[in-house]
Automatic annotation (TrEMBL), chains A, B:
Keywords per UniProt: DNA-binding, Transcription, Transcription regulation
GO terms for MF: DNA binding
Protein name, per record: HTH tetR-type domain-containing protein
Family annotation (PANTHER family): HTH-TYPE TRANSCRIPTIONAL REGULATOR YJDC, TRANSCRIPTIONAL REGULATORY PROTEIN
Keyword Nuclease part of the UniProt annotation: no
Pfam families referenced in this protein's UniProt entry, alphabetically: TetR_N
InterPro entries hit by this protein: Homeodomain-like_sf (IPR009057), HTH_TetR (IPR001647), Tet_transcr_reg_TetR-rel_C_sf (IPR036271)
Membrane spanning stretches: none
Length: 187, 187
């Protein structure tokens, strides 16, 4: 595939990524994506044969972005507390989107878990990237149960994001991030 | 409406309640509900003109059930710690459904928040029932910030349910419920 093909493919995946996040996977049609990517449906089918294929590409894109972000923190901050604080504060970096649409990983996984179990398994890989990275930080802190602590932190962040978006409440989000930072400092 | 009408209406709302929980609101069609309630579509339209109307009835049903449950705990256990422990342990009472489909309140609200903001406002009333009851328990414990503590507990329970269902992990769920019970005891 030449440069133009790569470019079109990337446009489709970027448009789908945003639509799946903002509207949900099931509420986004093939036509919605073609329109947002400004491609004709015929042209579009050249790149993707089904919405499931696009979802796989979107998940791969999100995984790459997530890995890059987590790796940059590991590189910039050797100290695990600092890494964990970056993770917790990510909820404030993305606050306006989180308060409006929830967590892109949590909301997608929850939606797919209802009726699309096969696709859900792919989406869980996004959680796995985060969980493994968190477990690594917890291990470096020599905690007794690093796997359990990683799952606990992930769960609390998910709950805070969900309730923050349900109530569209930035003050709640800030307070809970502060609480989590204090928790991280005590580890 | 006579007894038969009441009965048919109730059958529709019960069937829709389960389908919305198991499949999601958007993935459930009018026909799915009619079929599950074993009514013809014509008969069905006599009771409900739209899926939105059914959702309102489902939300009212869930609210009544939730209120009855919370009130029974307040009645049976005068002591707020005991009430809060019942709330936390509700996650284990419903564990098989929670591990498969997530929280009925959280997953519905999150789904509707994407593209159906008007309906989402109705669904948030379910969270409000819980939040207000939790705040009442926290107030009776004479905590400094009962509203904030209520939101915090609600958020953690949502996150635990979400992650428990993502990983379909009963051991994680039990461990986190134990952690929350210990947290409640320290209040």
């Amino acid at each position: 595939m030449g440069n133009k093909g790569d470019h079109n493919r990337q446009r489709i995946v970027e448009a789908a990524d945003q639509l799946f996040y903002h509207r949900g996977y099931n509420q986004t049609s093939f036509s919605d994506i073609a329109q947002a990517a400004e491609l004709s449906r015929g042209n579009f089918y050249y790149y993707f044969k089904s919405k499931d294929e696009i979802l796989s590409a979107v998940i791969a894109r999100r995984r790459d972005q997530l890995c890059a972000r987590l790796e940059s923190w590991s590189r910039d901050f050797a100290e695990p507390h600092a890494c964990l604080r970056c993770f917790v504060r990510m909820m404030l970096d993305n606050r306006s989107e989180l308060l409006r649409y929830g967590c892109p990983v949590g909301s997608l996984t929850q939606e797919l878990s209802k009726t699309q179990r096969k696709l859900q398994v792919e989406a869980v890989a996004l959680f796995e990237v985060i969980r493994v990275w968190l477990e690594d930080q917890m291990s470096r802190l020599k905690l007794q149960d690093p796997a359990g602590m990683a799952m606990h932190l992930l769960a609390v962040c998910q709950g805070v994001t969900l309730l923050g978006s349900v109530y569209a409440d930035p003050i709640f989000l800030e307070r809970e991030v502060g609480r989590l930072e204090a928790w991280v400092d005590r580890l």
